[in-house]
Each structure stands twice: as structure tokens, then as C-alpha cells.
Amino acid sequence: MKRREFLIGGLGVTAGIAAATSTTFAMGRMMGGSGGMMGSGSYYQPSFARQDFALPALDEGVTVNGKQVFKLNLQSGETRILPKAPTPTIGINQNFLAPVLRFKKNQTVRMEVTNKLNETAALHWHGMILPATQDGGPHQAIKPGNTWVAQWKVINEPATYFYHSHTHNHTAEQVWRGLGGQMQIVDEDRDKQLGIPHQYGVDDFPVILTDRAFEESGHFYYSNTRMQKMQGMHGNVILVNGAANSVLKPKKSLIRLRLHNASNARFYDLHFSDNRPFQLIATDGGLLEQAQTLTSIRLTPADRADIIVDVSDGKTLSLRNKKGYSNLNTGMMGGGSGLDADFDVFHIDASKASKASKVKSFQTSQLVALPTWFKSDLSKVDIATTRKLNLDMQMGPSMMFGSGGFFINNKAFDLNVINEVAKANTFEIWEFHNPSITHHPIHVHNTQFRILDRNGRAPYHWERGLKDTVIVHADEKVRILMPTGPYKDAKMPYMYHCHVLEHEDAGMMGQFTVT
Description:
Blueprint: H1 18-31, E1 43-44, E2 51-52, E3 58-59, E4 62-64, E5 67-82, E6 85-92, E7 100-103, E8 108-115, E9 123-126, E10 147-153, E11 159-165, H2 171-177, E12 180-185, H3 188-194, E13 204-212, E14 214-215, H4 226-231, E15 237-240, E16 246-248, E17 254-261, E18 268-272, E19 278-283, E20 286-294, E21 296-299, E22 304-310, E23 316-321, E24 343-349, H5 372-375, E25 383-393, H6 397-400, E26 406-408, E27 420-422, E28 427-434, E29 440-444, E30 450-454, E31 469-472, E32 476-483, E33 489-498, H7 501-505, E34 509-514
Parallel strand pairs: 2-16, 3-7, 5-8, 7-12, 13-17, 16-24, 25-28, 27-34
Antiparallel strand pairs: 1-14, 4-5, 5-6, 8-10, 9-11, 11-12, 13-15, 17-22, 18-21, 18-23, 19-20, 19-22, 23-24, 25-26, 28-32, 29-31, 29-33, 30-32, 33-34
């Protein structure tokens, strides 16, 4: 398929949508101008008119000798994000962001990644269960001009996944500049049987959420000051698939939105402008057993959630963020930053959706059967070990004047240190305790796990499926039940880390091997 050029812009004024207008100026007052929270007089507040929903290019690979081969170029260029000046950006097979990669369970995929940048990079297959040598973490660095090949058999369940930079000490900045995209493992026959929308760009849409900040020159604003390190980088421009203030005009009345928080640090508390209910059908690693009827959902960095929305009423509505759920509301950062705000994410104009037969709300008694270990009482699962992991933040010189300040079990990340050793094909309980003043979404490589409890209470309704990232709020203990996977390698490690990417780069990451 041809690659589609992205149309990018700021969270701007939309005629007839008052909420978008008010949000633009509220965010501008609190974030723009000199002396703002971002600490830069050049922090710029753009404004753009409504634009069409940006559908990312779809790459399904090419079949070669029974394998699905994807040729991925890490490249730099310029993107017309602001009308007054181009923005230097990086991306995958395009100047900014990346195509959606689509493949199927049990295929063997081959990723041929060529680094055409003038800097070292790494590309991680977030959520995949695969050999450690193929994981794309900081140990699989790709120098400029080199090609790295990753190949594995897909054993994950059909779901929405993530691929992005995982370069040692430079993950946050490279993702901010554009090095990331969405992967999908699909089973269209099964989805059709279940009545789940599955036609890409027709009734099945990626909704990749990012935010960016700009200098007036048009360049991205990025800083690694103490405050930005603590809160993670936030922007005042909200993008969906690289476009701001966009409008989706579906032709069908039942649509699937693959919500995907690809932001460096921003948390989202999402609902529709008319508070209509929707059906949550999948989390990070696959379908739920039964759809959950919700009116709002929270996504922290790296979270994914597939939802089904009935728009057969033909109305225009907006997906909105509700102020109040953020790393920016905690501790010394208070509520005064202005980065946590009410705003519209994007809009849906369903006036052209088919009315041939009114669509009933999505209903099914069961979607899939989750694995036995996921549903079993813990007493019936053979637990190999329980690990306790403390998420620490220190307000000392390392944070104020250096690049660190974040730790796990009082240790900052060291590329040469293996922190934990697990045995293959076993189950472990990992207990995360967060005594710090900020929230931490923790991602564990090479697994899809079950969230057991939060301070002894049941997990949220929207996280009762397979997960690879879990939010651990300030002063909270969270336990997960984690399968270690089938792959053994005593030398090459996997990562576990905070997915506020500035926290990861500042030391909140560890390594484990599976033997």
C-alpha cells in the first residue's frame, strides 16, 4: 500500500465545536509565554483548524520463503507540522512516526531494520513474547548505516501492540521526535464471527495518542531539566496518528477504535462528549473473555485498549480527556502546571454512517477463553518465586544536576548488571511498591501478565485482561502474575522499566534473564 502523508497540527479552533476552542486557549495561557512550567520562553502555542482524521499507512509485509518480511528504515526529514515553518522529525519508512504493521499469529516475521539516521538507535517490539536477542532493547543497538534483523514466530494473541525506540539513554528523545508506531496481530475470521469490526480504515481505526511541544521556530521543544525529568515530557499539542483536532467520518455505524497511548509521559482519562457508553473488548495482549460496558477509560503511557462504539445515531461527538488523572497532580508538582487539562482529543462525525439497518449495541456472551492460569485461584498456580520491586525517586544531586535520580530497589539502570534471573516456563509474582511522589507505568518485556490486585483490592475494570504495562500510583502496591515465557538465554537480558520514558532514561529500569 502507498504510504499516506500525515497532516499534523496543533490543538486548534474548530468551528461549531466550542470545547475544542476553549481548550486551545486555556492550554495556551497556562503553558505558553515566558516563565511557564516548561521553563522556556520559546514554548509556543499553535492553533490550527479542523482537519481530516489521519489514517496511518498499513504495512502487511511481503511473503518470502514462508516468512512475512518487513523492511523498516529509520530516517530523518522535515514535516509540515506548523504552517509557518517545517519541523525536523524522525520516523520509520516516513519522516514522522510510522506505518501500522499488521501480521497474524503463528506467522514467522522478519524485521529488517536499517538505520539511516546519523545517530545510534534501537527498535523494540513492545508486548511481544520472543527470544531476548530479537527483543530490540538497548543491547540490540543499530549504528548509523547498519541493518539489524529480528526474526521470530508470533505466539502472541491477536491484539494491538507497539514498536518504538529503545535506545540506551535516548529512548525518550527519539520517541518524542517520532520513532514509534503501532503493530497489530489480527484474526479477521474470528473477529467476523464475533461481530467485531475488523476492516482497516473502514470500521477498524488506530487511535495513536501523542502530545508535543514546539518552539516558535517550528522545532520540537524538548528539555531534560529536573522538573521535566520528574514529570516526564508533556506537550500542549495533542495528536492522533500525528494530526491535531481531527475529525473521523466513518461510513459504518459500529466502529472499533484501537486506543493507544504512545505519549512519553501524558496520562489520559477518556470519555465521549455525550457520555455515551462503549464496549471494551481488548487490553494490551488480547481480547477479554467478555466485553466491558464503560463510559470512561484511563490510559497511561504504553497502554492499549480496543473499544467498540455505536454511532448509528449519526451525531457528531468528541473523545475528550478529563482533567485530574496525571503524574502532574501529585506531590510538589501540585495542580498548577497547566499541563493537566480538559481537552478534546479528536472528533467523530457520523452523519455519513450507513443507516441501512440500525446497529444494535455490540453484544456477545463470550469473546475468548483466557488461559487457565489467568482465571485460576492462585493456590492452583505453581508460583516459582515472588519478587519485590521498589520504585524509588531521589531528589538529590543526581536528579538536579545529572541524568539520573530514578531507581528500582535502590539501583539505577546499569547496562552491564543483570538484576533478576527467572526460569523459563514458570510463573512468578512481581510486587511493585511505589513510595515516590509520582506515578509509574511499569512495562515488563517478553510477557503478557495478569494484574492481581492494588493495595489488596481488585484491578480496575479496564485492566482485567492480558497486560504488559501496569500503572503503579504513588504510595501503592500492585501485584502481577507473570508467565516467564518459553525462551532461554543466560546472557542476553530483557528489560523492565517505567514507561514514563524520561524516568526510564534517568535510571528506573532493570534487566532480567530467563534460563
